[in-house]
């Protein structure tokens, strides 16, 4: 097939998307893909490409289906597993311990909290429960997105106060519950064993996403409180949740995306709209889910200052999922976002192909089921490397290589020698995820994504909002009622969340 694809022209947007993706799968590397292709609503049939999906759209509204290929005509690439092993194990070319303490790593334009806001967004968009990183040639519709591919805060609200009544206060059916007797204001709701009682259990994966989840609960509750004089019953929840969603979507559209794709590409997306994402389609591109949005892994710092008395800690030392969170570990958000407090927040790590060392040797408890005889019953180290797992996704979904996408977009094509791939690398091209990280470093000093990564990430988030008939973009002229000057930021949400105390 040709590596070149014409841009898909759409109308301009009106008005002006574990750490990200832990994934599933438990077989050894030799397992071959199997099973029928799963179509929407259980129909068995061929995969849906972005081109064929276009024909399914029309007057009846958006298509809701599985993942799809944003670039269905591009040549796929599969890489030698031993090459991936040499690239991604501790002490190898992707270990940031090789940089030394004198190399600056803090991003001056993206503060540390955006890493975890990004993970929170991921949990609102995708929940891949079927893919297997040992498979080869998996088609996007062979795995299902188990949640709605929209920014609807389903991870906060679950299925709402009727079907998931356990999340809500029975007094009004609209206020979300949180906290416990010994930590009433600093943790999510938990059962007696410590399991989080929340709309998406993945939001208890680490302490920062847990605390962001709590902040969204508190913001919602403040909106409920403000509306309680005018609405009641089901109407109170419906009105409050819509206002919260629109403020949240405003943050994603006006702040989050802009920071990660840069002002130039952001302006093009606003003025021209997405060029490669099918209009009216509610799906997530596999190039986003399995590669580009895993950008967040590269922004994780080696250590974090959580609050004034809790600092220099690594992400996996902070909080074990499914356990009670102690009050002294409550996140002080001024260390993570610019809250106007006079405190300079920590920066996210600059984009590059170097990852925090602990991400290349994940705790075995987080990665069960990969015992390997060669390693005396212990997991294959490749499975304990987050970078290794990401690159196995390249092979699973036979994604195009980074250079292949760059050529299709008509942008700079970086050679392997520029990308820092090790000697002996057995291919003339680079995996898409790896390429996107290094492209950001080469094109933009690691401050934001380059043309390939920025295009995939930016178009996905813009299309998620543009193609959702319930998003704030479809209510032309809407402006936030919280915040100031017609704007609303994550800092505004956190200030309101901290101001609200459970009564």
TrEMBL record:
SUPFAM superfamilies: Heme-dependent peroxidases. One of its GO terms (biological process) is response to oxidative stress. Its main location: secreted. GO terms for cellular component: extracellular region. It holds the Pfam family An_peroxidase. It is found in: Secreted. GO terms for molecular function: heme binding; peroxidase activity. This is Animal haem peroxidase. It comes from Myxococcus fulvus. The lineage of its organism: Bacteria, Pseudomonadati, Myxococcota, Myxococcia, Myxococcales.
């Amino acid at each position: 097939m040709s590596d070149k694809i014409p841009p898909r022209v759409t109308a301009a947007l009106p008005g002006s998307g574990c750490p990200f993706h832990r994934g599933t799968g438990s077989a050894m590397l030799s397992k071959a893909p199997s099973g029928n292709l799963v179509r929407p609503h259980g129909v068995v049939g061929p995969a849906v490409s972005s081109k064929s999906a276009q024909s399914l759209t029309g007057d009846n509204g958006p298509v809701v289906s599985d993942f799809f290929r944003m670039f269905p005509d591009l040549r796929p690439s599969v890489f030698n597993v031993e090459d991936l092993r040499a690239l991604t194990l501790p002490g190898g070319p992707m270990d940031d311990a090789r940089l030394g303490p004198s190399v600056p790593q803090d991003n001056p334009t993206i503060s540390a909290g955006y890493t975890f806001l990004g993970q929170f967004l991921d949990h609102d968009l995708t929940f891949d429960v079927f893919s297997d990183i040992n498979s080869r040639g998996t088609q996007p519709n062979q795995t299902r997105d188990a949640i709605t591919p929209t920014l609807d805060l389903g991870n906060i609200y679950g299925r709402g106060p009727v079907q998931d009544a356990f999340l809500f206060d029975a007094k009004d059916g609209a206020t979300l519950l949180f906290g416990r007797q010994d930590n009433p204001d600093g943790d999510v709701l938990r059962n007696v064993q410590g399991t989080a009682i929340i709309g998406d259990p993945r939001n208890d994966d680490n302490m920062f996403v847990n605390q962001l989840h709590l902040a969204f609960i508190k913001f919602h509750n403040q909106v409920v409180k403000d509306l309680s004089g005018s609405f009641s019953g089901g109407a109170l929840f419906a009105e409050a949740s819509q206002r919260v969603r629109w403020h949240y979507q405003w943050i994603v559209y006006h702040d989050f995306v802009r920071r990660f794709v840069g002002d130039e590409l952001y302006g093009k997306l606003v003025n021209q709209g997405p060029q490669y994402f099918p209009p009216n389609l509610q799906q997530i591109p596999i190039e986003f889910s399995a590669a580009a949005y895993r950008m967040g892994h590269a922004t994780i710092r080696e250590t974090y200052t959580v609050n004034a008395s809790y600092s220099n800690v690594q992400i996996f030392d902070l909080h074990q999922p499914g356990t009670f969170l102690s009050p002294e570990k409550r996140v002080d958000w001024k260390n993570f976002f610019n809250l106007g407090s006079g405190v300079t927040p920590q920066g996210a790590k600059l984009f590059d192909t170097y990852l925090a060392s602990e991400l290349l040797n994940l705790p075995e408890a987080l990665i069960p089921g990969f015992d390997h005889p060669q390693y005396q019953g212990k997991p294959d180290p490749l499975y304990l490397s987050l970078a290794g797992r990401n690159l196995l996704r390249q092979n699973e979904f036979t994604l195009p290589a980074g250079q292949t996408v760059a050529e299709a977009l008509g942008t700079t094509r970086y050679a392997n020698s520029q990308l820092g791939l090790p000697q002996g690398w057995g291919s003339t091209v680079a995996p898409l995820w790896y390429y996107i990280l290094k492209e950001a470093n080469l094109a933009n000093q690691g401050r934001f994504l380059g043309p390939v990564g920025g295009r995939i990430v930016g178009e996905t988030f813009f299309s998620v909002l543009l193609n959702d008939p319930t998003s704030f973009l479809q209510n032309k002229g809407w402006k936030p009622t919280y915040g100031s000057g017609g704007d609303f930021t994550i800092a505004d949400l956190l200030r309101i969340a901290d101001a609200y105390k459970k009564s």
